[in-house]
Amino acid sequence: MGFREKIFADVVPFSWRAFMPSPFTVEAYVELFAKTGFLKAMVNTFYVSLMVVVFGILLNALPVLPLLS
Question: Which end of the chain is more exposed for a tag (fewer CB within 10 A), N or C?
Answer without folding.
Answer: C
